[in-house]
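#dry-run=false #mode=assembly
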Amino acid sequence: MSNELLRLDGVTKRYGPNTVLKDVSFTINKNEVVGLLGDNGAGKSTLVKIMSGVVPMTEGSYSWEGKAVPNVNRAETERLGVETIFQDSALVPQMSISRNIFMGREMTNALGFMKIKKMDDIASEILDTVVTIEGIKSSKQLVQSLSGGQAQAVAIARAVHFKRSLLILDEPTSALAVRATEALLDYLVQLKSEGVSSVLVTHNLHHAFQVCDRHIVMNHGKKILDVKREETTVEELTAAVVGGAEGLEKYRANKKK
Amino acid sequence: MSDEKKSGTELHVLTAPLQTETIQTIRRLADNKPKGFWGKLTSNLQFIRGRGALEISVVAVVLLVAYSIWSLADPENFRFLSEQNISGVLTQSVPLLGILAIAVGILMVAGEFDLSLGFALAFNAVIFIRILEWTGNIWIGVIGGILSGTLVALINGLIVVWTKIPSFIATLGMGFFWGGAGLFVNGPNSVSLPNEYTKDGNLFHFTFAQDFGWFRSQIIWLVIIGTLAWYFLHRHKLGNHIFAVGGNPAAAKAISIDPNKVKLMSFGIYGALVGLSSVIFIARIPSVSPAGTTTQDFTLFAIAAAVVGGASLVGGKGSVFGMIVGAALIELIKDGLILGFDAGIYLQLFVGVTIVLAAVFNKYMEGKAS
Ligand SMILES: Nc1ncnc2c1ncn2[C@@H]1O[C@H](COP(=O)(O)OP(=O)(O)OP(=O)(O)O)[C@@H](O)[C@H]1O
Ligand SMILES: [Mg+2]
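#status=ok
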């Protein structure tokens, strides 16, 4: 049996005349943490949106456990168990923490009326166990009253609560303090043992190197590197992220000398 | 390279052992619940602040108490507490504006407006009367009026959702269209309810405009619609989706809520309530201009009531309770001006000031919201 979870083949994404992704192919395996790296504007977030079904691809194919998924949309990926923490616009500021966590997946009775108290309690529980972050007073607090890091913690808590097979994190640690970051990275490793894969998008190569089994480096919409941790170094990743394909070549040439 | 040095220290920080004691001493949210009656009450009030209509309700109650005291002290000149004022004015005007404010408010929570409301009110009334004339059955007419309201709003909504032009512009244009459509269907003469439906003993009259002494049928409609709307908007998942879409459509979409569907649903609910309001309106005022001149003022008064009650002009915020209180406050101010100062002609001036003050106040409270 193949170990493959999600595979993208020949994915191209165009926004009008702009080609943002060019013929990108890769696989995410079961029980794997994959780092998705690259400079600003390299196309990481676009790939994340395609993987989570929020944005359609222009060309290419999407398959799950070896089976093609013809119409990828968010409802479909939700069914597959994909959960995403988006870099932008994940939460509704005017709504409470608990309503944000259960947005679109409200706990209701048969008639669709929400079990408010139950959702509040579970939201508190999630915030206590998943992300340990200071300063949140209650799950009834509005998200607009939270700090950037606290809001990020809520987005993480939601994804972690609903994930089943793949957790995609687009720069989840950009607003987190050291302790919360460390806890989250540890958590990704722990998830592997529970059979949940993750894709981590980050600009911090040391974070990526610390937890990822494999690294994919994007540059101007193309995949330029896809290596296992054992076969690379932080220096090589840095060269690829900063210098692109040329930088990578140069680095390798220098090393051979 | 200095870059490498920087990341080098980061690595060092990250590989430092975690201080587990600090994690254990973090206060748990689940243990942090308010205890006892007062604890729970103050905690809940704290969360209502700036979201619902706590402050504006206080203003309305203060006004009500002041009017009542004034009226008790000077019953001859300030006839606020008279049966004629309460039943003849307030329990008719407050429910109509209240239901319209709920309609508009739900749409505003979804992040949209409908400036064609006044024209649509007249158009639905025309359709109602026309169907009554054709079928001879007033209840089919009532249903027709409500369906007409729903359809009119859905057409407005489809234009907004499809073309992506701001609803402000789309419905401004469609307002003239519906005004014209009313004239087209009916001709220039005003429409009116046949006399038999305006008398005591008639079931239609009983349902929509009966005088019960100190109150009228309309107030019961406000209670029913208000309760249903509250449960829908604040307790049903579809209401929750309206808040999500109005607050941040991108976030809603990312979680597989379709903003277009939710907006259309909001237009539909809004329209059904406007259709019902047309029926309630014509039951009381038996003559309506098909071009919308009699009903035009309702457009902005309904939006004003929702805003006074705390609904946000950019979506994602509002409460049914606030919408009703907003409508009541506007009608109370009107009533007081007319009764106390015989200043009906300055109505707009005072209502205008109230709206601006309420908006400023809500903005200020928003900053304080927890
Ligand atoms: N909706 C859009 N319409 C047009 N162009 C877009 C759109 N979204 C992204 N792009 C473009 O696609 C390119 C890749 O963007 P993307 O957000 O995927 O980059 P990224 O790798 O996530 O960058 P960052 O590290 O800054 O988050 C950018 O040049 C961006 O301008
Ligand atoms: Mg990005």
